[in-house]
Design a protein that fits this description.
This protein is an alpha+beta fold. The chain has three helices and six strands; from the N terminus they run βββαβαβαβ. It has a six-stranded mixed β-sheet with strand order 1-2-3-4-6-5, covered by helices on one side. It starts with a strand and ends in an 8-residue tail after the last strand. The mean pLDDT is 93.
Amino acid sequence: KIESNSRYWLAVDKNSNVLGTTGLYESGKDASEAAWLGWMSVRSAYRGQGIGKLLVEHSIEQAKLDGKQYLRLYTSTARGEKTAQGLYEKHGLRIVGSEPHPIPRVIQRIFGEKKPLQILYRELELTPSAPHI
């Protein structure tokens, strides 16, 4: 897959410590209609404080301002992504597809995954935002 027009943002505290990150990119197959959420992450010590919520909302707003019809992302069923799944659901990013994760099952087991991992594809239909003046 070809990615282009990548942009990333950092959430920082008053001392410039990075608390989290998010980004948007376009994929060659659907660049005209969709932005893809990339590198959504909040440092573990700062989770549960609303930082992830603000990052997702910022990404949604940016995709709208870019005139995109959809915000899409792929994620997984890994244990470490469980909290993020709830955040995506709360913001309307619904699962629209899935497939087996390409990491070999033996490696998944080594990392404590009891069930076979899945890649989840999520999507939010956007309504355009008026430009800020």
